[in-house]
Design a protein that fits this description.
8-stranded mixed β-sheet; binds glycinamide ribonucleotide; 206 residues; 22% strand; alpha/beta; Rossmann fold; binds ligand NHR
């Protein structure tokens, strides 16, 4: 049976696009919903352009009541009956109310080599620590923030002139390789982690 995938975003949605565009042909899954907590997230239009239902639940309407926000997320998600939820640049910490409902079905991509740099500002923290390499991780989402089982990692070198933005751009290219690879494997029922070697993405021609 083809798996149904809901993708949660807060921003531009470049990871959402690579996931959605990977779910074609003999892929075991298809996108069923893109949901954003930010009304003007750029990824919403990219979802609609692809014919994927796109919806918004604005956390600001709930004035800090995280459980009320999450109940609204659940109401937006459940009619689409997803088998898998992918967080892709989704920026709200989720409480056990949400986590327990979708336990074992939820993935996140985090821009660090976990268990290093859980939480935010990962690239600035990697540079401040003088790390020689950085990267990204896909992990199962559990109640422990960025602490669930690792399903894949990709590494990049840190360059001497790097800023948080230049490092983030190098890591993002690898996110776009890693997340579709992990989703495909996960959707086929295989949770063996994928570790990608460093391969620079060639600049686009033309
Ligand atoms: N929720 C749980 N329970 N477990 C995880 O592993 C989660 C999660 C929710 C989101 C993504 C995560 C990341 O990859 C993620 C993983 C947001 C924050 C954060 O501090 C931290 C980690 C992640 C996402 N959010 C602030 C908050 O108060 C808001 C920040 C903002 O709006 O800019 O929720 O990094
Ligand atoms: C990605 O780098 C993702 O790893 C990161 O936000 C970016 C989203 O980009 N996620 C987090 O920092 C989660 N806290 P995108 O919207 O273009 O996919």
């Amino acid at each position: 049976m083809t798996k149904r995938v809901a993708i949660l975003i807060s921003g531009g949605g470049s990871n959402m696009v690579t996931l959605a565009d990977s779910m074609v042909g003999d892929h075991p899954a298809r996108p069923c919903l893109v949901l954003s907590n930010v009304p003007d997230a750029g990824g919403l239009q990219k979802a609609r352009d692809r014919g994927i239902p796109a919806d918004v639940v604005d956390h600001r309407d709930f004035k800090g009541d995280r459980e009320a926000f999450e109940n609204a997320l659940v109401s937006a998600i459940d009619p689409h009956a997803p088998d898998i939820l992918c967080l892709a640049g989704f920026m709200r910490i989720l409480t056990p109310l949400f986590i327990t409902r979708y336990a074992g079905k939820m993935l996140n991509i985090h821009p660090s080599l976990l268990p290093k740099y859980k939480g935010l500002h990962t690239h600035a923290r990697a540079l401040a620590a003088g790390d020689a390499e950085a990267g990204c991780s896909v992990h199962e989402v559990t109640a422990e923030l960025d602490g669930g089982p690792i399903l894949g990692q990709a590494r990049v070198p840190v360059r001497p002139a790097d800023t948080p933005d230049s490092l983030a751009a190098r890591v993002l290219e690898q996110e776009h390789r890693l997340y579709p690879a992990v989703l495909r494997r996960f959707a086929s029922g295989d949770r063996t982690p994928i570790f990608l070697p460093w391969l620079s993405v060639p600049a686009k021609k033309g």
